[in-house]
Amino acid sequence: MGSTRPSPAGDYGPEPQAPATVTGQARQVPHPQQHMLGHPQERPQQHPQPAAQIQQVRRLRLVGTSGVVSRAREFARGALHDWGWLPSATEEARAAAEDVLLVVSELVTNACLHAGGPEELRVGRGAKLLRIEVQDRGEGVPALRTSRRAGRPGGHGMFIVQRLCLDWGVVHEAGAPGKTVWAELTGPALD
User: Fold this and answer.
1) FRET label pair with 13: which of 33, 34, 67, 104, CA 20 to 30 Å apart?
2) Is 49 helix (H, G, I), strand (E, B) or coil?
3) Is-above-0.90 flag for pTM?
């Protein structure tokens, strides 16, 4: 599935009316859940409380640290362990956890390579959904590359994110530098 769906996973209804700029597959529109992991006072009022969707959020500041990709992966791994995704009881649950770690790596690496480094990683979980957000100070928008050269490294990160996630996109806060790149994945069935 791609980020061109009219509503995000969990279907909170239509997005607020705002001009959209499409670059690649990432939408630059206010996402109905954009503040699900942000400040509660900024949430759009027409949507149900995100607590029903996202039950817990973990945040990791990454500004000025070294080894941010491995640090972000270990942070996400710890959250998945605390939430019961790891150690995995089934092959499906193990694959879902590995997908989360890969998406975290790709989004943080993208921020390192193209946006001057990530500022914060946020990981939020719901009963059937996991949301990853990487905030950076870059102005650009991640896009799927249209041309790739076989045998050359790089350029596959957003294809991986597109393939593994239910949805992904970009949020630019009005008047604030940078952006937040978000991705949503389905959680494993936990008993």
Assistant:
1) 104
2) coil
3) no
